[in-house]
Amino acid sequence: MKFLRISIVLVITLISMSSMKSDISADWVSLFDGKTLNGWKAAEHPGTFTVSDGAIVVHGDRAHLFYDGTVNDHSFKNFELKLKVMTAPGANSGIFIHTTYQEEGWPSKGYEVQVNNTQSDWRRTASIYAVQDVKEVYMKDNEWFDMHITVQGKRITVKLNDKVVNDFTEGENGRLTGGTIALQGHDPGSKVMYKDIMIKVLPD
Q1: Are residues 55 and 101 in the same domain?
Q2: CB of 180 within 8 A of CB of 197?
Q3: Spatial distance between the Cα atoms of 96 and 185, rounded to a whole number of angstroms
Q4: pLDDT tens digit string along 56-72?
Q5: How far is CA 83 from CA 12, 108, 147, 148, in A?
Q6: Are residues 103 and 186 in the same domain?
Q7: Fewer Cβ neighbours under 10 Å: the N or C end of the chain?
Q8: Are residues 20 and 40 in the same domain?
Q9: pLDDT score of 167 more than 80
Q10: Same-domain status, 53 and 10
Q11: What is the dihedral of CA 143, 80, 97, 196, to 10 degrees?
Q12: What CATH number is attached to the domain comprising 83?
């Protein structure tokens, strides 16, 4: 009888652990190991991207760093993306979503979520670039801030430090057709850092 009780407890424990593991795997997943650019593929000027102190440092000639890793086979449709960002004064960058790798030029597929607090371009951080722009400056240079991008169906929501700054729903013939994520190196005068890059894949 005692053996039976122990066996039942063991089975319940294993089921519980299996359930926990399933929940974790279906939750947030890291896209950046904090040490290398493994899982990422740079185009045009790879030297623009380096890793320092647990962050991807973007500083140099125009280039884009595309996620090319194994998570969801680097193809995301509905998802939440969260990461920490810090801009140097006068820096311009961006995060492309629903995009695809291309050898050079500005990515032609998907949308760019702007990162720019003080550069001359008036489209500020959290703008969906040239589609639904933000003129107000919400974040400061030289300080880490949280960016949280959610894509669900035809809707994109951008939060900065848990505050919704942009909420956009595209029309019938939109660009949300699935794809990967890319970080933008805009110009040699711009320096931006990204870390703690995490994604949660949402059901279609």
Answers
A1: yes
A2: no
A3: 11
A4: 999 999 999 999 999 99
A5: 36, 23, 6, 7
A6: yes
A7: N
A8: no
A9: yes
A10: no
A11: 40
A12: 2.60.120.560
- Single-letter amino acid code for the residue at 24: I
- Phi, then psi, of 192 in degrees rounded to 5: -135, 145
- 107, amino acid identity: P
Q: Give the mean model confidence (pLDDT) for residues 136-147.
A: 98
Whose CA is closest to 92, among 75, 113, 66? 113
Within this chain, do residues 14 and 75 fall inside the same structural domain, yes or no?
Answer: no
User: Do strands 49-52 and 55-59 pair parallel, antiparallel, or not at all (unpaired)?
Assistant: antiparallel
Does 143 lie in the same domain as 172?
A: yes
How many structural domains is the chain composed of?
2
Indicate the pTM of the whole model. Answer: 0.87
Same domain, 102 and 147: yes
Looking at every residue in the chain, the average pLDDT score rounds to 91
Query: Nearest 5 degrees, angle CA 157-CA 159-CA 163?
Result: 125
- Pair (12, 53) in one structural domain: no
